[in-house]
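In the design runs reported in the main text, the only information available to the sequence generator was the tokenized backbone. The following block is the verbatim input for one such run; it is reproduced so that readers can re-run the procedure and compare outputs position by position.
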């Protein structure tokens, strides 16, 4: 059984529409898929009839910050009709718009005018994020690739990296739990924290009601999977796994393609 509990559509920064993503997941042999767009549930308004081809788990990837680090928390198996998750999406979308304005102002100081308007035009739904600014910078010829855009303007510590706009970690987790979902720390290795800091983050996450962590996030080396599984077990968390697929040819894993979950952990789907 393949569980892929982390993926994106065009309603955030993925390149496949929900129906295309679902078809591809079926093709790739995924049995259970969670669509987890950044800070929006818009994809769930565009789900085609599934006819039993795949099991879809309602999810979202919420942005927040811990100390000075931007982090992501997955809400899995959330009740889409709950006031809590709808408030979460609305509040975070509002924060994104506000942040996008500030990103625009910061880029203007770098001599790039109209970036906010440019990015907003590229965003079809309620998600507006750094990838839209990066694409705009490519479109106006400032840079010639996504990578260059992030390296020069949009990446961590650069002008376009505006933090501190999100609801805080306890609020994010409360929204997920109030929506009867499971709060899972996404890709713990992506934050490049020291061991001590990662453990502190997990402690704070658990203290705030967090219930799981991604033990497997896309392709990762065996020793890291073992290490994450051990940490997960030590902290008494549920274990999740997913590709974080953003689209064909994009620098994330293919749907369903990642190492299998180690046996010493309790998978998050035991609670679905
Ligand atoms: P935001 O959610 O607005 O902070 O934008 C972050 C998103 O940018 C992440 O979810 C990634 O999908 C994307 N991203 C981050 N770094 C890169 C990069 N170097 N190249 C392409 N996309 C990136
Ligand atoms: Mn993304
Ligand atoms: Mn993420
Ligand atoms: Mn993601």
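Verbatim output:
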């Amino acid at each position: 059984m393949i569980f892929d509990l982390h993926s994106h559509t065009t309603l955030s920064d993925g390149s496949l529409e929900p129906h295309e993503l679902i078809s591809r997941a079926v093709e790739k042999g995924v049995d259970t898929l969670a669509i987890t767009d950044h800070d929006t549930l818009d994809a769930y308004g565009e789900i085609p009839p599934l006819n039993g081809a795949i099991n879809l788990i309602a999810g979202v990837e919420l942005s927040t910050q811990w100390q000075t680090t931007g982090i992501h928390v997955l809400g899995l198996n959330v009740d889409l009709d709950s006031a809590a998750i709808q408030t979460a999406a609305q509040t975070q979308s509002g924060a994104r718009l506000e942040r996008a304005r500030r990103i625009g102002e910061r880029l203007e100081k770098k001599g790039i005018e109209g970036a906010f308007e440019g990015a907003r035009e590229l965003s079809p739904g309620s998600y507006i994020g750094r990838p839209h600014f990066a694409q705009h910078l490519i479109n106006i010829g400032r840079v010639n690739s996504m990578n260059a855009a992030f390296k020069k303007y949009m990446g961590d510590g650069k002008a376009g990296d505006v933090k501190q706009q999100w609801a805080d970690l306890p609020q994010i987790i409360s929204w997920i739990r109030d929506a009867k979902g499971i709060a899972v720390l996404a890709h713990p290795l992506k934050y490049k924290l020291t061991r001590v800091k990662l453990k502190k983050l997990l402690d704070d996450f658990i203290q705030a009601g967090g219930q799981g962590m991604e033990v497997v996030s896309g392709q990762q080396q065996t020793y890291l999977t073992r290490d994450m599984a051990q940490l997960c077990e030590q902290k008494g968390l549920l274990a999740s796994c997913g590709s974080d697929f953003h689209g064909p040819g994009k620098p994330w894993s293919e749907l369903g393609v990642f190492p299998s979950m180690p046996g010493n952990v309790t998978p998050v789907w035991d609670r679905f």
